[in-house]
Specification:
There is one protein chain. The longest helix has 29 residues, at 134-162. The chain has 10 helices and no strands. It is globular, with a radius of gyration of 23 Å. The chain has a domain at 1-71. The chain is mainly alpha-helical. InterPro entries: INTS7, INTS7_HB.
């Protein structure tokens, strides 16, 4: 197959990915995409896999990267493809739309965290003196920890139903002068979640400083992740601590109090 044909197939697949965002795939369409990928050279197939991840079609990326893993000539390229496959597996878990119950959400998030931990290990194995993957490892690690933080927040909130306040909760609240202690252990768990998100926001800030010379889209993405963690931390803080005057200092302007001038 000529290079022009491979390029054309890549462009058609990319166009299909773009037009099929948030839309279900038919089985025959799935087969057509994979048949096209199998008919072109490995580099073009890799590029299609990257486009699949970009537009959220991780089910294709998993199959493409898995296929390419055993067709590379070096160990670090093998582990690089393994890491991409594991991250695609993780994101595919998070995009499962059939999950509705809280328990199902927890299971999907836990599975995604496991895949991301495997991806980080693979990225470390793919590192060579000529190809340092420090940023990639840190970015994937933070993604895993953000998912863990969300998972812990979900579990903490479920404590309201599974762990009612003990009989001495009122006395504890009086002694500590913290009225929210009447709600039981859920308060301390939610406060810990706020600290975890604040720590993640700080780590994203450090990552931003370390890659100040990256492309603008990458910097914007890291900024959004930083602000997202900070926003969740401040929202939890408003609920669980702010009325007691014990909220932590984020060192930045309170996002929830920003007033935009018209």
């Amino acid at each position: 197959m000529t290079a022009e044909t491979s390029k054309a197939i890549g462009m058609v697949c990319t166009l299909l990915f773009q037009t099929s965002v948030d839309k279900p795939w038919l089985i025959q369409d799935d087969a057509i995409i994979m048949n096209a990928v199998n008919s072109i050279d490995f580099w073009s197939a890799y590029r299609i896999g990257r486009q699949a991840t970009r537009y959220g079609h991780h089910q294709f990326a998993i199959r493409i990267f898995s296929m390419l893993c055993d067709r590379v000539s070096s160990e670090h390229l093998y582990f690089w493809l393994v890491s991409l496959c594991e991250m695609s597996q993780a994101e595919n878990c998070l995009m499962t739309k059939t999950v509705r119950s809280p328990q199902g959400i927890v299971e999907c998030a836990s599975e995604a965290v496991t895949y991301y931990m495997k991806a980080v290990s693979a990225l470390k194995a793919a590192t060579t003196p000529q190809h340092s993957l420090i940023f990639q490892c840190e970015y994937a690690r933070l993604r895993s920890e953000v998912l863990q933080a969300h998972l812990q927040l979900q579990l903490a909130c479920s404590c309201i139903k599974t762990s009612p306040p003990p009989a001495i909760a009122g006395s504890v609240a009086a002694v500590t002068r913290d009225e929210l202690q009447k709600c039981g252990r859920v308060v301390m768990q939610i406060r810990k979640c706020a600290k975890d998100f604040k720590t993640l926001a700080d780590q994203y800030g450090s990552l931003y400083q370390s890659v100040f010379d990256a492309d603008p889209k990458t910097l914007i993405n890291i900024q959004l992740l930083h602000q997202g963690c900070l926003l969740i931390a401040q929202a939890i803080d408003k609920i669980s601590q702010h009325n007691q005057g014990m909220g932590f200092n984020t060192g930045e302007e309170d996002i929830l109090s920003i007033e935009y001038s018209k």
